[in-house]
Design a protein that fits this description.
Shape: globular
Structural class: alpha/beta
Number of strands: 17
Strand content: 5-15%
Radius of gyration: 23 Å
CATH topology of the largest domain: Aspartate Aminotransferase, domain 2
Distance between the termini: 13 Å
CATH class of the largest domain: Alpha Beta
Largest sheet: 7 strands, mixed
Bound molecules: 4'-deoxy-4'-aminopyridoxal-5'-phosphate
Oligomer: single chain
Number of domains: 2
Length: 483
């Protein structure tokens, strides 16, 4: 971590001389609403000591992780990795692009871009139906991608992998194809306070349709799920539990395996939202034991418009169809239709063939880097960035869970989140400012919006330094004393 003097010098070097004149403070009411909720500052109230970057150890134990990556953790070179991402090699507003909006979507490596290019240049055909060479090539590539996903997730077979548009569609699929059949008036669905709207609204719709009741597990002042309160929510009527593996708004890594076990102990089915988790932690369906696991390709260096629903085989087999149409049937008369077995039963119509194949390539790309190596590098950068942000006067980090992925969500006293986002954009730095489709958890922390910087494999310490320097420039302040 650079010293305070170095930070100031860096800010000046990067973005010009910082005026010593204090800036008039914009008293936007959303910035710090009066709230009885806790007001954690970044460093004062940590439940644990920040590890200096050099002394960092992974926060998970190797036994929690099952293959494919075995052996010691290897350091990754973010400077080398970023060369694989052509989009990063450009200037925005006259400065090098710094992409810290990875929670919204990740950039794509050359290998994925090339794979899509190759598909459209030499393989493009509809799959399954055609009796010609290109149909065979496209089908092989598509089914090959399904096998890659199955292996990546540690699924029992490719039949447990359904291609969908993304996390949102996968959750809606389970709500409608499973929940609508299984839930009755008075049944209960348990979620947590951390959820993205995509893991709230489909269940609310299902509750309206069936008369089921939505129950919400609370979080503590650090943004961690209160496990005892979570367990107390379960009754004999709890049919379904749905929670996120990683919170997109705070970065909390939930104790997913334990939460699945608790839900199962109470006879509930469990869906885990892996949208933010899948690129940051190695997952294995056998050890996680979730009934469904869902994620979006675009958050793991794959294309947009493609995602995955993993479901346990017997569960998918027992589920009715999602949408009706071609591909999902084995026989149709005007009187009745016989449906295909999973996964085809849930893939009506022509799917996103090219992007499914591109997703397969993205998963191969991250597997080659090693998910444990990725997690280790991210944790180190997260520590570095957390220390850096602690130096910004008036900055309040939202959520300081003990287990945290590379999400830095904060508000800056006297500034609206949108204005911070715009100011950073002028410096070529892309962050997200808004409610992050997770309004309930932001409100739990007393804010309507936050600024969110999210880390990925190509982010470097220089990216973090630029963010810190940009924020210092905005506040026109000298760095706050570090604890
Ligand atoms: N869940 C979480 C935790 C997310 O972060 C997101 C995307 N921000 C989603 C669900 C929805 O993903 P998508 O928009 O790709 O369907």
């Amino acid at each position: 971590m650079p010293s305070e003097a170095e930070l100031s010098r860096l800010a000046n070097q990067l973005f010009g001389e910082i005026s010593q004149e204090p800036k008039p403070v914009d008293q936007h009411p959303m910035a710090f609403p009066a709230s009885s909720e806790p007001t954690l500052t970044a460093a004062e109230s940590l439940p644990f000591q920040l590890q200096p970057p050099g002394g960092w150890q992974p926060s998970f134990s190797a036994s929690q992780l099952t293959a494919p990556q075995l052996g010691p953790i290897q350091p990754l070179d973010a400077y080398q990795i970023r060369k694989d991402f052509p989009i990063l090699d450009q200037q925005i507003h006259g400065r090098p692009l710094i992409w810290l909006d990875n929670g919204a979507t990740t950039q794509k490596p050359e290998a994925v871009i090339e794979r899509l290019n190759h598909f459209y240049r030499s393989e493009n055909s509809n799959i399954h139906r055609g009796a010609h060479e290109l149909a065979a090539r496209a089908t092989d590539a598509y089914e090959g991608a399904r096998a890659t996903v199955a292996k990546f997730l540690g699924a029992s077979s490719s039949e447990e992998i359904v291609f969908v548009r993304g996390t949102t569609e996968a959750i809606n699929l389970v709500a409608q194809a499973w929940g609508r059949r299984e839930l009755q008036t008075g049944d209960e669905i348990v979620i947590t306070h951390l959820e993205h709207h995509a893991n709230i609204v489909p269940w609310q719709i299902l509750c309206q349709q069936t008369g089921a009741v939505l129950k919400v597990a609370p979080v503590d002042d650090y943004g961690q799920v209160l496990l005892e309160s979570y367990e107390r929510l379960f009754t004999a009527r709890t049919k379904l539990t749905a929670f996120t593996q990683v919170s997109n708004a705070l970065g909390t890594i939930t104790p997913a395996q334990e939460m699945v076990q608790i839900a199962h102990r109470h006879g509930s089915r469990v869906l885990v939202d892996g949208a933010q988790g899948v690129a940051h932690e190695q997952v294995n369906m056998q050890s996680l034991d979730a009934d469904w696991y869902v994620f979006s390709g675009h958050k793991i260096y794959g294309p947009t418009g493609i995602g995955v629903l993993y479901g346990k085989r017997e569960l998918l087999q027992a589920m009715g169809p999602w949408q009706g149409g071609g591909n999902m049937i084995s026989d149709v008369t005007f009187e009745r239709t016989i449906y295909q077995e999973p996964p085809n039963r849930f893939e009506a119509g022509t799917g996103n063939i090219a992007d499914a194949i591109g997703l397969g390539t993205a998963l191969e790309y991250v597997s080659n880097l090693g998910l444990r190596n990725i997690a280790a590098a991210e944790q180190e950068l997260l520590s570095y960035a957390t220390e850096g942000l602690c130096c910004i006067p008036g900055l309040r980090l939202l959520g300081q869970p003990k287990e945290k992925a590379g999400v830095l969500s904060f508000v800056l006293e006297g500034f609206r989140s949108e204005d911070v986002g715009s100011a950073l954009n002028q410096l070529g730095i892309a962050v997200r400012a808004g409610h992050h489709c997770a309004q309930p958890i932001l409100r739990r922390f007393g804010v309507e919006t936050s600024v969110r910087a999210t880390l990925a494999i190509y982010n470097t310490k220089e990216d973090v330094d630029a963010l810190v320097a940009g924020l210092l420039r905005l506040t026109h302040g000298s760095p706050r004393k570090r604890p």
